[in-house]
Input
Amino acid sequence: MISPEVFEAMRPFLNASFGNPSSAYRIGREARSAVTAARERVAELVGAAMSSEITFTSCGTESDNWAIGGALFSRPAKKHIVTTRVEHEAVRNLCLELERRGYDITWLEVDQQGRIDLEDLKFSLRADTAIVSIMMANNETGIVFPVNEAAEIVRERSDAFFHVDAVNAAGKIPISVKDSNIDLLSISGHKFHGPKGIGALYIRSGIEISPSMIGGRQEQGRRAGTEAVHQIAGLGAAATVASDLSEMNRVRSLRNRLEETILTTVPETYLNGTVPQDLRLPNTSNIAFENLNGEVILARLDDAGICVSTGSACNSANKTVSPVLQAMEIPYSRAMGSIRFSLGRSNTEEEVQIALQKLSGIIEDLRRMSP
Ligand code: PLP
Output
């Protein structure tokens, strides 16, 4: 849920201060200064050198689509894109569509732990590469990718733009775009206790990509449309809360307890992506319950008041095996029974204890029933 500070930051812009930030009257000026303040807060969250490098969008998907589409439009002679097999659908499906429209995509593979090999990136770059897009942390496994090193490689060896989908990483691990060679970076409010329907794209100063929407002169002419001031104010407040990562140590220890207890006490369970702890987000565990159906586990946990997901949360209507687990060559008997546990800042020890108790009862029950 959104944090109380976020709710309070949004409230005035839904009633008394319902001005348009482009208008000169008082409530318009109030709205404009709220947008300016939020931009500064988001710039701080991602470590941008200047707040003018932040443009508000409607969500993470728009930021991802804009980064890639905007790069292609601005350099029409370049028809090659490099990305990974394990991107969120916001990047993956866009690249699949671009492939159908004649663009050439290099899909970087991952190993069985879900890691990319930077040597593959080096060999993939070409004179006609328009953009490289690599996520900061995978939304299903929590595996963190070496995006700073990847950005350096791209900068040294090509003039392609380097985009990072940081939707799942922002507010969980440190981000400092000014200390990296990242050109474009996407975030989304609902991933760090901000409102849904608001995101942002960081565009490094000096980088020119085509506008996201053409019309009015809002957002420095980069994205037309009257600003959703209440959403932007909420995103700004959430960014300030999320910039303080100290709570993540507590979340990490809760996650570790949850994960270690499941793996040591529930038979036939396996961690998907057994990389060292510091190469995973502090809040995510993706665990396979071999020979069980993840959707059934999810439904039983839901009945018990515990929300988990199979595959990407944005994808739970699609019942096929997750492309991320497929790319990691997780056997079908495990991939179908894989559950992603995501903890947040509001979770407590007691909730983890309850989840563990309920889960072990449900798994015992399902194993008794399964042949
Ligand atoms: N990228 C990643 C890594 C995500 O996890 C998500 C959503 O969960 C998105 C992009 C899409 O963000 P949004 O739902 O704000 O469009």
Observations:
- Residues 59-61, 64, 88, 90, 135, 139, 165, 167-168, 188, 199, 313-314 surround pyridoxal-5'-phosphate (CB under 6 Å).
